[in-house]
């Protein structure tokens, strides 16, 4: 392929020098493999994408959630690969892209542990009322309020994991030594991994009613958008905490805000919002019982190293007419002619 193969990098996460919001992501590996890269012009995450921005691109490394549609990739016949820097692929139908001969890859294995650890971090912060105790200390209220904010702890508590996929199961394994009961919820109503771990799978209403901490790790789809609504929060215990590390669009944020205001739940910890970035005067930001982080809590050095490696391996594989094991929608790739590939190889 040589330098005839060109990778475009989305401008929402990088600049023309290759410096990214994650630091060094290993672009030198592309150069060493004889692959050219360049920064793409700004592409909107909402609204139509101009095909001209992708006309001379073979692959895209996408940091954000650009909505690649079948219509868009049909208009750019050179494009053959969209590589998501992360696990989520909101707004992209992998099977529809594959039917157009375009490979979509993501990095679920590299994200799984850092994301599960961020869920555990927020859970423990809620259990010990960490941020509230921090405020007491730094605002000179030590003498009057020290000890008044005793946390619930986790021993003997029930943790409900909503969306028991790879991240949820990783979190469940981390929780196992802590003396908790873990229950799960899946779209299908069952989970082979949950069965292996001896974890009960329940419906969403039961999970809300029984859990002392609800941790959301579910995928955002058209069916799951807004599923965590006023009825869900009304079903939770008044002493329970709600933790979302998945996608803000899963939650009716107004309903969550009202549940917190009314004391229907004890608190929340959020790494994701709808919209993103959230508005500056979001009422959640002024609540003492809410922890807010900027959809970046899992961005550790381990995350960057492992995700970068996965992305670069996928880009190089596709440039060599190989289908990486992180490809999505591969059932459709088997049915159609893959762009630019005379023969298909699986890595």
Detailed description of the structure:
This protein is of the alpha/beta class. About 30% of the residues lie in helices and about 15% in strands. It has helices at about 30, 70-75, 95-100, 110-125, 130-140, 140-145, 165-175, 190-195, 205-210, 230-235, 255-260, 300-320, 330-335, and strands at about 5-10, 35-40, 60, 80-85, 105, 160, 180-185, 200, 215, 240-245, 265-270, 290, 320-325, 325-330, 345. The strands form 3 sheets. It has a 7-stranded parallel sheet with strand order 8-7-6-9-10-11-12, sandwiched between helices. The chain has a 6-stranded mixed sheet with strand order 2-1-3-4-5-14. Helix 10 (about 230-235) links the parallel strand 9 and strand 10. The protein is globular, with a radius of gyration of 22 Å.
Brief write-up:
Helix content is 32%, strand content 15%.
- pLDDT averaged over residues: 93
Question: What fraction of the residues are assigned to beta strands by DSSP?
Answer: 5-15%
**Helix/strand/pairing category:** alpha/beta
> Main β-sheet: number of strands, strand sense, barrel status?
7 strands, parallel
Number of distinct helices: 13
Regions with pLDDT < 50 over 5+ consecutive residues?
A: none
Beta strands, count: 15
Shape: globular
Q: Could you tell me how far the N terminus lies from the C terminus, measured between alpha carbons in angstroms?
A: 18 Å
Task: Give the fraction of residues assigned to helices.
Answer: 25-40%
Spatial strand order of the main sheet:
8-7-6-9-10-11-12
Secondary-structure element order, N to C: EHEEHEHEHHHEHEHEHEHEHEEHEEHE
Rg is 22 Å
């Amino acid at each position: 392929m040589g330098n005839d193969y060109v990778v475009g990098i989305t401008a929402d996460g990088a600049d023309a020098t290759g410096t990214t919001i994650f630091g060094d992501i290993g672009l030198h590996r592309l150069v060493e493999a004889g692959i050219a890269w360049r920064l793409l012009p700004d592409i909107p995450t909402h609204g139509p994408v101009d095909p001209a921005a992708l006309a001379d691109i073979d692959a895209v490394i996408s940091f954000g959630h650009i909505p690649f549609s079948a219509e868009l990739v049909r208009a750019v016949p050179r494009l053959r690969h969209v590589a998501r820097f992360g696990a989520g692929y909101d707004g992209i139908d992998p099977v529809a892209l594959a039917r157009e001969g375009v490979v979509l890859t993501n990095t679920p294995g590299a994200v799984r542990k850092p994301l599960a650890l961020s869920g555990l971090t927020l859970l423990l912060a809620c259990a010990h009322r960490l941020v509230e105790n921090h405020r007491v200390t730094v605002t000179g209220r030590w003498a009057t309020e020290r000890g008044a904010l005793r946390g619930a702890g986790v021993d003997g508590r029930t943790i409900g994991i909503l969306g028991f996929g790879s991240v949820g199961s990783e979190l469940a394994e981390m929780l196992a030594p802590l003396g908790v009961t873990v229950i799960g919820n899946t779209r299908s109503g069952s989970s082979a991994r949950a069965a292996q771990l001896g974890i009960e799978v329940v419906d969403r209403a039961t999970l809300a009613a029984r859990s002392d901490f609800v941790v959301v790790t579910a995928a955002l789809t058209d069916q799951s958008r807004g599923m965590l609504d006023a009825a869900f929060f009304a079903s939770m215990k008044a002493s329970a905490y709600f933790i979302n590390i998945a996608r803000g669009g899963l939650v009716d944020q107004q309903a969550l805000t009202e549940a917190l205001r009314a004391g229907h739940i004890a608190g929340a910890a959020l790494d994701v919002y709808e919209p993103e970035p959230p508005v500056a005067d979001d009422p959640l930001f002024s609540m003492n019982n809410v922890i807010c982080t900027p959809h970046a809590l899992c961005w550790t050095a381990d995350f960057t190293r492992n995700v970068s490696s996965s992305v670069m391996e996928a880009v190089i594989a596709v440039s060599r007419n190989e289908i990486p094991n992180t490809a999505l929608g591969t059932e459709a790739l088997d049915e159609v002619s893959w762009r630019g590939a005379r023969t298909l190889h699986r890595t």
